[in-house]
Write a structure and sequence with these properties.
single chain; 110 residues; mainly beta; globular
């Protein structure tokens, strides 16, 4: 899937859609994701991507906190960034790089 505004010629490799906050649809190949498109996700949701298949925090991981409802597609172009982006915040915890090495995805909603 090519989306306008993506700075790379590579395709988005992780898609996340949350419908009614209860039925997530996740499409992702192991050790391929470098970016994510999120949509239809409620404030209070936390998405975490890990380098570790078991979700260990001894390796790279990124936490994405949704602070405002997101109803249209938002592109996060890299998991290797931290910052406040208005409707969401990203916290990257670096060891040796995460882009292209994602092995686990978790979602929690409060």
């Amino acid at each position: 899937m090519e989306l306008p505004g993506l700075r790379s010629s590579k395709n988005i490799t992780l898609f996340f859609t949350c419908i009614n906050s209860y039925f997530p649809s996740i499409q992702c190949a192991n050790d391929e994701a470098r970016s994510i498109v999120i949509e239809y996700i409620k404030a209070g949701t936390i998405l975490t991507v890990y380098d570790s298949p078991g979700g260990s925090k001894d390796d790279d991981y990124t936490v994405i906190k949704i602070v405002e409802d997101i109803d249209s597609p938002v592109i996060i172009q890299s998991f290797e960034q931290s910052g406040d982006f208005g409707s969401y915040k990203v916290e990257f915890h670096e060891k040796n790089g995460l882009d292209g090495k994602v092995s686990r995805f978790e979602m929690f909603s409060f």
